Amino acid sequence: MTDYLAQRGMEPLFFTDTEVAALAFDLHRRVYGYSLEHVIESLAPTSELDFLMLPEEKQSVYEAIQKTHIHGSPDGPWFFIIAQSEGATHRLLGITDTSMLRPQVFAYQRGEVGIAFCGSEKQVIDAVLESMAAEDSRFWRKADEYWNARGGSYTDGGAFMFDVLPKADGGKELVLFDKFGVTVDTHPKGEFTLVAATACPLSLHADARSTYEAVIHTLPKMDWGEARATLDAIETAAALENNGRTWGWDVLSLLLDRRYDTGDLRASLWSDLVETRLVRIIASAASHPCTAYAGQKTLGHRPEPTSLEQTIVVDARPHPIEGTESLARELVAFHRLGWRRFAVINCRGHRFIGNGFGPGCSGVRIDVLGAAGDYLGSGNDGMEIHMHGNGQDQIAQIHKSGELVIHGDVGQCYGYGSKGGLMFVLGNAAGRPMINSVGSPRLVINGTALDYLAESFMAGDPLNGGGFVIVNGLRFDDKGRIVPLETPYPGSNLFSLSSGGAIYMRDPYERLSSSQLNGGEFTELTEADWAVIEPVLLRNEVHFDIALEDLLMVGGQRRSPYDVYRKIIPVKSKTLHAEAAWAGHQD
Is the pTM of this model over 0.85? Predict the structure, then answer.
């Protein structure tokens, strides 16, 4: 890019990526007078299937831009965050890398006022919201929506602009636009003004599952007074009854993890209140332990378990995010004392949770609440780990065995180099999940992956103990019902450079095309395949209440799995086989 700028009489002073990118943006926007859409295209050119999906008139303009500026487009990884002022408009602009290498996340919350974010890590957004909520009652701790963008996407361009625009009455309005200038709705349904608790409309003298089902059945008819009273009643019951904390944990973790209709209540605020009560119930174990839970009182306090089933509650906040005194090291120390069940609360970007426990950790379970940092569950060998919310980047790296369950979305490179075990994601994965995986890892993504799924996948034969990925291509509507995405996989690089394993794509309408299989090919789904993936989908049902029977429903009718799922395997390259044979002969 420096040569590109030099051709136009511009020379950077410091030759940093940021400076060069800023000069290019300024050149195209201010000097050349390009629209923001065309500036974004000059920096992040649209290609492959995304280009073909554009209208013809847009293709011709984009082609001209690319011919002029492609040699000046910055190489990845990058994520440009630009604060801009144009007249009376104040703008926060995020442009994502088309190669999907740089972590990025967007979010917004709209209550009495609106606030928007774009950044590299979700935990930073959560930290800002928590800080603001502590000082200003107009905010709460969770965004209404978080999402990762796919650079160069034909649907939204992979770039978003949060504009603060003047209103006729003298006020300001926050409006979200995508690359193409299309307004994105940032007005979720649901009341966000809290009122005092009134009366709980339910009887809570039932087992945890029945109580959860009673709450979600009644919640759409509740106002905030009744909803808060219901949470008060659950918290009170958890403190009074025998095994109350266990009952309270089971009820509230279901309310936190599942998707359902919240009626006239803002879903993100309800989730915030549920998590607050859940944390409060088990945090009290530090001062009042019971047979089911004990807690760490202060840094350095390490009680011994009274039984193998007792859970140690560890507040992440006093512990460093990483390093020799980190939370991750503290959990390892507890494990060496004999603890096998962990509840980690109030995470604030803490990294490496579940790392370093060593081999053969079957029977160990870790539950994580808050905003966990990178590398959660990496190197796991037998543990069951639950992230009760969205995860970040590099989760399940070199995962060997056990289960890792994400009750939300995950960031970049999920399962990088994984070797085995079961992994489940309720929502979406960002770029390059399961890259360089080998052995027998098995992953279910109930949403989709943005692109480069299973790049360089080397997981053998799934019918002979090898690994695979199942993509269900679903989302939840505001009633908590599963509905299919417009396409089960939006990218153009599925199974790139892969040599083993398989992808099972829920695609009953065959919307996935062979042009998206950059290294893969469709093949017949057999009874042997279904015998392998059915048990994994049943386990997925246990974790998320996504019934296997619902997955086989298409257009209101129950279909055969062979009509619902499609199998993708790596293309066998004769050229590569010949090269490998020659190399082996030379050795």
Answer: yes
